Amino acid sequence: MEPLLEVKGLQKHFPIHSGAFRKVVGHVRAVDGIDLTVYPGETLGIVGESGCGKSTTGRTILRLLEPTGGEVLFNGQDLAKLKKEEMRQVRKDIQMVFQDPYASLNPRKTIKQILLESLEVHNIGTKQERMQIIEEIIQVVGLQKEHLNRHPHNFSGGQRQRIGIARALVLKPKLIIADEPVSALDVSIQSQILNLLKDLKRDFNLTLIFISHDLSVVKHICDRVAVMYLGRVVEIADKRTLFENPSHPYTKALLSAVPQANPKAKRERIILTGDLPSPANPPSGCTFHPRCQHATEECKKVAPQLQDIGGGQLVSCHLYKELFSSQH
Amino acid sequence: MSDILQVQQLRTRFKTDQGKVSVVDGVDFSIRQGETLGVVGESGCGKSMTSLSIMRLLPQNGSTEGKITFEGKDLLSLSEKDMQKIRGNEIAMIFQEPMTSLNPLHTVGRQIEEAVLLHRKVTKEEAKKRAIDMLKAVGMPRPEEIYGEYPHQLSGGMRQRVMIAMAMACDPKLIIADEPTTALDVTIQAQILELMQKLKEQTGTSIMLITHDLGVVAEMCDRVIVMYAGQVVEEAEINQLFESPKHPYTIGLMNSVPELDEEREYLETIPGSVPLAHQMPSGCRFAPRCSKAMPICSEKQPDLLDLGGQKCRCWLYAEVNE
Hints:
heterodimer, A: alpha/beta, Rossmann fold, 8-stranded mixed sheet, B: alpha/beta, 12 strands, ABC_transporter-like_ATP-bd (chain A)
């Protein structure tokens, strides 16, 4: 299958300024050379802890942040090289759903204005057709036509996230990037939104990049999952392989750290020591080595590359062979 | 084992523009010596207000009725001076946001010492030693240096360790931890939960753990109360709760969370959302969202029924009891 989106060596470095003349004294390597492929109709999850660069990745793909290097191929075009106006056209096909449904809707506008805006910007349909589209979409996300004349403050968190999803859907995009869309919601509301996303995916044949820190949620909604650590992808595999057979030591630790709602489950937990190193000054070699219980001399010096270990599972670890064989 | 804390018919109200609004409405529970009691519920269920009521730290417009007995003392009738002797000394609190609850202008060491100097007859040197010992106990690297550092120099996980060190500094008999790991990443959360478990085993402190995360509850708690809209709707031993949850809200909550070790196409949902504090339904507060609701549910409030160790506020179990 032809991929819908191919990200090659994507980088986003933020300069660190210091002193009276705001001289650049270093860079935060938020995203440091990542490769991702997204196929039509699939949901790719990007997981990782805070500061791993997962949100920056999403924003850089859409060029809400300008990439420092690398290519973003969408439908054969390199988005990183497009002019502003051309990029604006592409945004019709790639939409975003944000984490905070309180901050991402303009409080002064009615829901109608919010939803019409993107249709107007992209000159789609006549006035009547636009109204028809938004009346349809608002019902698709589980709200009613009557809600269109209200303002965001009239809605609960879950309803606002439905509006955020409706806004992303009105343009019938080919790809939606959802950045922690359920993290701000209570669990009983979270499940409503997750089910809605699953329905939409099926009904509209959506392709989704789902960015989240919550592994259980990612497992529930995604087809393939990429695990990020310190600006890099350390493992990528289809969901079942990743959760049943994690091969990178970080993925293993991450999975074992999730508390299970079962008081009788006794699992072996891998407790990582220390904190995430600063992306402004990442460790040498494999960036995970200071926290890795298996680290060798090689890991301290040489950065591993993502390599295919079979079955579409890619792992960036020097030791995957040893660790992998000890598992079977 | 004896109860260290007893809360009876706790009612917490706020004066607002909409009139008096009650956010905690007739809550009863107790915490035994050395036990970890989980308090579970979603935002707005009153779990944090319950803990602030116990500590008597409510905002100005809040008022409390009922009885809170801590080691034989009625906390609500104590003078503010006597309450200060308990707060931070016998009952300590750990908050969710370590950045906003630590003072950015004071060193870590000074903040840990503060409680020790206030509650114990110690010299400055002894207090400093205690602070450094506490930093060691919570697993901080280079405790002597961190003693002199400021909160902004530490990561989120380290700050939460400092909060725990502060709370433990006076050997409290009860620690109230309000979402202590919610702001942390999972791998750091695992570190902090392990630390809390270890400290509890060493000191025998009771813990009241407030959280929305059922996974954290399953891992940490001995007993659980589930709160909804300002009331306790279920109370059970940990295994009872997960093996046979009784209240439709508890069941809904459990089924709406995706789990790592199971595969489900759709998650169960609880339709609608939590009622607002000034628009509480007159019958059972969960009735408008409940799939099992009967006519009586919207007419009369159910009591918290004792079902043999497990308690549940639901009309479904009313006949069984009568």
